[in-house]
Amino acid sequence: MASIVFLDSPVGSGFSYARDPKGYDVGDYSSSLQVQRFLNKWFTDQPQYLSNPFYLEGDSYAGLVIPLIAHIISEVTKLTFVINCAMLQELRKDRSLLLISRQGYVVGNPMTDMKFDGNFRIPSAHGFGIISDQIYEAARKHCKGDYVNPANQMCAEVLHTVNSYLAYFWMNNNLTRNALGVKEGTTSEWIRCVKGLPYTFDLPSSIPYHLKLTRRGYRALVYSGDHDMIVPMLGTQAWIRSLNFSVVDDWRAWHLDGQAAGFTIAYANNLTFATIKGGDHTASEYRAEECFAMARRWLDIEPL
User: Fold this and answer.
1) Helix axis angle, 153-160 relative to 133-143, nearest 10°?
2) Taking the domain 21-113+204-299, which CATH number applies?
3) What are the TM regions of this chain, as residue ranges (predicted)?
4) Annotated catalytic residue: which of 74, 226, 281, 284?
5) Where in the chain are the domains?
6) Tens digit of each residue's pLDDT (9 = 90 or more) over 205-252
């Protein structure tokens, strides 16, 4: 029987809040340290769980920081990898996690590195038939493979067409409004908006932490919904391949109730990648039964 702890992190997400407004001013590294401190206190208060196998899991943006959090916990235990001197001083304060039997981590539809996550959105949108051949060819011509940092005006304009212009027509289509149950007359026009958050995005890539953790023997499961346009499956596959791990179980379908539920491939260093057929962002929201079966098999060290 498994015990699960759900954590709203960083502060401000879910039902979490700070009494002091300054408490919301966190970032990738500082919020990850807060998670480590939370776990330290939780296991101190619940010592009966210290000997259990321990896994971390996070989806979407949490997928970026989960490897960092796992790395911080491994620092508490081994003090092998030094992130920086200030962080090391913080880690040395809390070491009661030493008794945890650390097993690994799971990340779903994970943000990892915009070089991969962002640059595969345009090819994925074209592959799904969302954008036309003409728009795709214009993007390829003017952006030259970099769809994250447009280097010229023509590239910026075609990316605007893909990211905002098409979304505008989708949001203002009556079929969309009816499907979402939007009350008629609520607004005459829906526009795309971006609101700033007091959060410091100071972890540009979690790939180095994936590499360190898996090389040290931690098990890792990375999964993607194959309909995800926010963190495309193609980008996730690309950064996994960049680790240069050898394949131990080649690409194959995995099944649930006699139906193909997705595809999977296993690499050296206990790294498994799996897709969830029909899964969006995030897959566990749209394909709960398939994700549960996948996680249960993986946790039981069974083939998917």
Assistant:
1) 150
2) 3.40.50.11320
3) none
4) 281
5) 21-113+204-299, 116-200
6) 999 999 999 999 899 999 999 999 999 999 999 999 999 999 999 999
